[in-house]
Amino acid sequence: MNKKNICCLLFSLSVVAQAQEATDSVSTQESKSTLKARLHQVQQYLDTKARAQVDPHYIEVPDKPWRVILRYNASVFDVDYSNTGGDPSAGDGIDWEMCFEPPMASSIGLWAGYRGTGIGFSKSLSKKKGTTFSFSTTGAKYGASIRLRSFDIDEVTITSTIYEDGTVTDNERKGYLNAPANITSLYLNGYYVFNGRRYSQAAAYNQSVIQRRSAGSLLVGATWYMSAFDLSDDRNSLLMLLSHGVGRVKLFQGNIGVGYGYNWVPLRGLVLNAMAMPTVSLYNRVTDYNYDCNYILVQADGPTDEYGQWNQETHTWANGKTHRPLPKDLSDPTWLMEIDSWKTGSESEFSMLRLNLDLRLGIAYNWSNYFVGLQAQFNNFNYKKDQSKVDLFDAFGRVSFGVRL
User: Fold this and answer.
1) Beta strands at 295-299 and 324-326: parallel, antiparallel or unpaired
2) What is the pTM of this model?
3) What span, in angstroms and rounded, lies between the C-alpha atoms of 198 and 215?
4) In Å, what is the CA distance from 196 to each residue of 44, 129, 145, 148, 385?
5) pLDDT tens digits along 77-136
6) d(C-alpha 331, C-alpha 393), whole Å
7) Are 140 and 196 in contact (CB under 8 A)?
8) Alpha-carbon distance 345 to 385, whole Å?
């Protein structure tokens, strides 16, 4: 093949390649246009459906469906753990209560989503670092939320009433546990709105829509609550002994309730909401995890040197005994080095008809494509088994500022 033919061949291949590139470019543009058109159709369908579900005289569905929200959250948690030892009614025993009130936990984060569905991320501002991811969704007639919290705390207030030989002694002390207690709670909530065409829970709490006129509605809701209270560290053995060997408690509770919510609109763009829902538990399981200890809840009358060393494998002291009386001076830290506790089993109890409360307050103001919100939620859970009783108060407040895109 001569040089002239080679040049012609190369020129032909170049032309074919350019034509192919032009064809591919056109095909890519057509694909992008098709995808964009389909996405636009989906958005139109969702927007039309959202507007069809509400009365426009009461609820406005904004034209701009996307929202980005900056949020500041503050959470408070209170746990009261009470127990009875001996027989106080007969004048010989003790009633005591531990109260855990951890400092307010603050976090800041972002939430982004389309209409009532989106994801959020927040980071703790406290000394203990932490991050939270969340997913939430709301519609004209429904809503759902998830809240998870876990922390360690050693600061405690202990109050006690001691009954002995006909005398009663009250005492209150604030201090620190020998080892932190761990508290974990998981809260899942869903609700259904009967008057969803005129009343929107979301208008006050995530601003996916705007309430234009005052309206209220009955609601039904369901919650699933799990909490765990754990002080099963060897250094807390004295508290476990006072708790009849209980070192850890887990609660699983399923509730349903009927409540009422009301949106008050005193002026355009402003909505104030209040919602209260008493609930009754249909499923309530409490599990106590029991522990034994190498000490016993009596104080020695004389020397205890003969006990010698403790053997963790055989669970016996050197003199063959399994339990050693507590020393008279409990403030002496040397005995804490000898404490050993171990799990012996668990006991579960099922019951129903526990009464709890879900209370919410919300304020939101909308102008142009911006909005601000202030929300608060309070939950109370309690359970009792034998001499042990735990009351949990879980609440949070949130300030938000957002823009519609």
Assistant:
1) parallel
2) 0.68
3) 6
4) 21, 40, 18, 28, 41
5) 777 878 777 777 777 777 878 787 776 778 888 999 888 888 888 877 766 545 667 778
6) 32
7) yes
8) 16
305, two tokens: 């040197």
CA distance 399 to 364: 10
User: Which segments within 194-238 are labelled E, that is strand?
Assistant: 210-211, 215-230
Alpha-carbon dihedral angle through residues 35, 36, 38, 39, given to the nearest 10 degrees? 110
CA distance 247 to 235: 11
How far apart CA 307 and CA 324 sit, in angstroms, is: 7
Q: Does position 384 have pLDDT exceeding 90, yes or no?
A: no
Beta strands in 16-141 (DSSP E): 59-60, 66-87, 92-100, 105-114, 117-124, 131-138
Give the 3-state secondary structure of residue 18: helix
Q: Which residues have CB under 8 Å from 14's CB, separation 6+?
A: none
Phi, psi of 235 (to 5 degrees): -70, -10
Go through 284-305 and write b for each residue having 16 or more CB atoms within 10 A of its CB, e for each that does not. bbbebbbbbbbbebeeeeeebe
d(C-alpha 265, C-alpha 216), whole Å: 11
The span from the CA of 244 to the CA of 86, in Å, is 10
What one-character-per-residue DSSP string does 131-165 give?
EEEEEEEE-SSEEEEEEEEEEEEEEEEEEEEEEET
Which amino acid, residue 250?
K
8 Å CB contact between 286 and 251: yes
Residue 325 pLDDT > 80, yes or no? yes
Report pLDDT digits (tens) over 212-258. Answer: 999 999 999 998 988 888 888 888 887 787 777 888 888 888 999 99
- Rounded CA-CA distance 24/146 in Å is 47
Mean pLDDT of the chain: 81
